[in-house]
Amino acid sequence: QVELVESGGGLVQAGGSLRLSCAASGRTFSVYFMGWYRQAPGKEREFVATINWSSGSTSYADSVKGRFTISRDNAKDTVYLQMNSLKPEDTAVYFCRGRIGGYVYWGQGTQVTVSS
């Protein structure tokens, strides 16, 4: 069993920055990808960014390219999302997602609110 725990959400003014963290615990010996998704009120969950755990290659949604950076710490089984130049439309619950050992796991989510 694997558990993903996010942290780092909060309230920030437009133009500000936040850093989200997601730590994986449990049977994490085969991590393939980890990433971030978000869900705004009344909208479907959408892809934000993902990182290949072995190569470090990354992929981003067009809406966050140039503003968000995903990174990893393999030793800590932790993935990060550095969010800069935040906009009100970035307001959402951010979920960590991991493909580990052939299964997909989700965190519980962390709220990010950007005020204008």
Structure overview:
- The protein has 116 residues and is mainly beta.
- The chain contains no helices and 11 strands.
- It has strands at 2-7, 10-13, 18-26, 31-39, 46-52, 58-60, 68-73, 78-83, 92-100, 103-106, 110-115.
- The strands form 2 sheets. Strands 2, 4, 5, 6, 9, 10 and 11 form a 7-stranded mixed beta sheet that branches.
- The protein is globular.
- The model has no long low-confidence stretch (mean pLDDT 95).
Largest sheet, strands/sense/barrel: 7 strands, mixed
Poorly predicted ranges: none
**What is the 3D form?**
globular
How many separate helices? 0
Distance between the termini: 40 Å
Number of strands: 11
Judged by helices, strands and strand pairing, the structural class is: mainly beta
Q: Estimate what percentage of residues fall within beta strands.
A: over 45%
Overall average pLDDT: 95
Quaternary structure type = single chain
The helix content is under 10%
Q: How large is the radius of gyration?
A: 13 Å
**SSE arrangement, N to C:** EEEEEEEEEEE
Task: Provide a compact summary of the structure.
By secondary structure, this protein is mostly beta strands.
